[in-house]
Amino acid sequence: MILILLFWVGAAFGSFFSLIIQRCQRAESIISPRSHCDNCQIPISRIDLIPIISFLILRGRCRNCKAKISKQLFINELLFGGLFLLQAQFWFAPLIFSSLIMMLILSIIDFQKQMVPTKLLIILLLNNLIYYFFIKNESILTLSLIVIIYLIVLWINKFYLKIGEGDIDIIFILLLILGINGIFISIIISTIFALISAIFILKANRIAFIPFLNCGYLICLIFM
Ligand SMILES: [Zn+2]
Predict the structure, then answer these.
(1) How far is the centre of ligand 1, averaged over its atoms, from the C-alpha of 41 (Å)?
(2) CA 63 to centroid of ligand 1, rounded, Å
(3) How far is it, in rounded angstroms, from Cα 55 to Cα 24?
(4) Could you report how far apart the first and last alpha carbons of the chain are, in Å?
(5) Tens of pLDDT along 130-155?
(6) pLDDT band at residue 5, thresholds of 50, 70 and 90?
(7) Which of 187, 197, 20, 36 is nearest to 111 (CA)?
(8) Which residues have a Cβ under 8 Å from the Cβ of 82 and sit 6 or more positions away?
(9) d(CA 42, ligand 1 centre) in Å
(10) Long-range contacts of range 41-49, CB-CB < 8 Å, 24 or more positions apart?
(11) What is a single cellular component term in the Gene Ontology annotation (predicted)?
């Protein structure tokens, strides 16, 4: 019963974050107007805003005009519900859990728009820096080393690799939590998943990499 409730709370967060992501992408206010159908513009009643349940009851359509509601909202609710279930199972430290929430938001935005919002990246960096200094008790000296390596990698990437800069930023931000061994393993796992998806599932030569980095990150957190 508690697990169902937790999943549902996670789904509610997923619904809330989806709204923020959508409004930020459209440069709209987060507070107003109320959630409405994109097709008929009629505000969605509270009863139709219940995460997961409303989508299933309405079969993914607007109650008023029957236009299809984006499946992405439903998927986001499932993903956040799943993340909250994992939290209940593995009890990640609060700063790790907040990093996982931000990584999930970044993954969704990267998957939808193939972009990385700088503001969210900075919040994730600050979150991980607090963990790095206050939980792991690392020194400013090791951080300086990481920054130097980061700048060298950026320089090499500019001329030879041409990987998305946002992906490199995130790898170094996750390094603050995972450490050097963890980040290597997580890059290997992410790359294998990304290659399998690119070849067999998405059949594309350019895919969003952050969702795969997120999978690698999560697997490392669980098994290391
Ligand atoms: Zn409608």
Answers:
(1) 6
(2) 7
(3) 23
(4) 29
(5) 999 999 999 999 999 999 999 999 99
(6) very high
(7) 197
(8) 7, 10
(9) 6
(10) 49/15
(11) plasma membrane
